[in-house]
Write a structure and sequence with these properties.
The protein is an alpha/beta fold. About 40% of the residues lie in helices and about 20% in strands. The protein has 2 domains: about 5-115, Response regulator (Rossmann fold, 3-Layer(aba) Sandwich); about 130-225, Arc Repressor Mutant, subunit A (Orthogonal Bundle). One of its GO terms (biological process) is regulation of DNA-templated transcription.
Length: about 230
């Protein structure tokens, strides 16, 4: 099952397409404007974005450029513009594929599966479950267990924990977390990291004063490591 984000303002296209893609086993979220789509793409980290070009607040090609500046998520452009020049432009702007309207859900599904199969080299290794002590982080299922018990996390909390679990014992700076997890290339939002770490600690049954897994290194960042064995 792939997690798809559909950015399409035409309700007569969006509604049946959501239904058809869900029937094919995908988890589908949808929005009707470019800026809402950019927000959802960065916050929810879908596996693939389907992007209409004719959006009410911003041309889809401009949104594609903005998205490519901060994310490598695969993008399929859905467009009624079928001239070769336009298709070349969207591919040059960073689209992974395109479909010309009208198209069927079966066609879009096939293209989505083809794009996702391309994946970056070594993606299978990157998708292996990470284990740190009694903590297990499974990126394929996007599931976390602690001592065998499922921990319910928001998408952002999961991404934060997954990033830290991939670097056990290392001090990870807030700047790195903002860049890699929030896709914010510059600083200025350290409080965002602090708040999410606080929520994450609470769900792992610990706090900053009595850490088990998440250890703050004052003035630097945070380190995730397995708890020391009890004597």
């Amino acid at each position: 099952m792939a997690r798809l984000l559909l950015i399409e303002d035409d309700l007569t296209i969006r509604t049946p397409l959501i239904r058809a893609l869900r029937e094919r086993g995908h988890a589908v979220a949808a929005t009707s404007t470019a800026m809402a789509g950019l927000r959802d793409a960065l916050e929810d980290r879908p596996d693939l974005v389907v992007l209409d070009l004719g959006l009410p607040d911003l041309d889809g090609r401009e949104l594609l450029r903005m998205l490519r500046a901060v994310s490598s998520v695969p993008v399929i452009v859905a467009t009624a513009r079928d001239d070769e020049t336009e298709i070349v432009r969207v591919l040059d702007a960073g689209a992974d594929d395109y479909v010309v309207k009208p198209f069927t859900a079966a066609q879009l599904d096939a293209r989505a599966r083809a794009v996702l199969r391309r994946g970056p080299a070594g993606a299978d290794a990157q998708e292996a479950a990470l284990v740190v002590g009694g903590l297990r982080v499974d990126p394929r299922a996007r599931q976390v267990t602690l001592d065998g018990v499922t921990v319910e996390l928001t998408p952002r909390e999961f991404d934060l924990l997954h990033h830290l679990a991939g670097r056990p014992g290392q001090v990870v700076t807030k700047r790195e977390l903002l860049t890699e997890v929030w896709q914010i290339p510059y600083g200025g939002a350290d409080k965002t990291v602090d708040v999410h770490l606080s929520w994450l600690r609470r769900k792992l049954g610990e706090n900053a004063q009595q850490p088990r897994y998440l250890h703050t290194v004052r003035g630097v960042g945070v380190r995730l490591e397995a708890p020391a064995a009890q004597p």
